[in-house]
Design brief:
By secondary structure, the chain is mainly α. Helices cover about 70% and strands about 0% of the residues.
């Protein structure tokens, strides 16, 4: 009888650490890009005047702000994933306590729930 694993090996955790770190770096670059876009719009007096007249500018600022907010949230999730990797609790479903499938973690590396747990809610 094969015993069910309760955590990923140190080598597997290192692989995930690299993946999460790469995604975190990319997410931070994207957030920086959004912040520069927003700050560029706010810094020009022309943009302030246009914003009063042009609903498109306002909609674009709202869209960029929302995208920046999503990136900030993703960054926090990825940082938490790195903490779980360091604590060796990464990849353990917060609902079932079983290991989350590796393919799922490769697609959504900040995942805290298995597909089984996510579907049962």
């Amino acid at each position: 009888m094969t015993e069910e694993r309760t955590r990923y090996s140190d080598a597997e955790l290192e692989e995930f650490k690299q993946l999460v770190t790469e995604k975190l770096q990319k997410a931070m670059e994207e957030l920086d890009f959004y912040k520069k876009q927003l700050s560029g719009r706010a810094d020009t007096s022309d943009a302030k005047l246009k914003g009063l007249d042009d609903g498109n500018v306002s909609a674009e600022v709202e869209r960029t702000t929302a995208m920046a907010g999503r990136q900030a949230k993703l960054i926090k999730h990825l940082q938490n994933a790195l903490i779980r990797i360091e604590n060796k609790t990464y990849g353990i479903c917060s609902v079932t306590g079983k290991l989350i499938n590796k393919d799922r973690l490769r697609l959504v590396p900040h995942s805290t729930k298995s597909i089984e747990a996510k579907n049962s809610r």
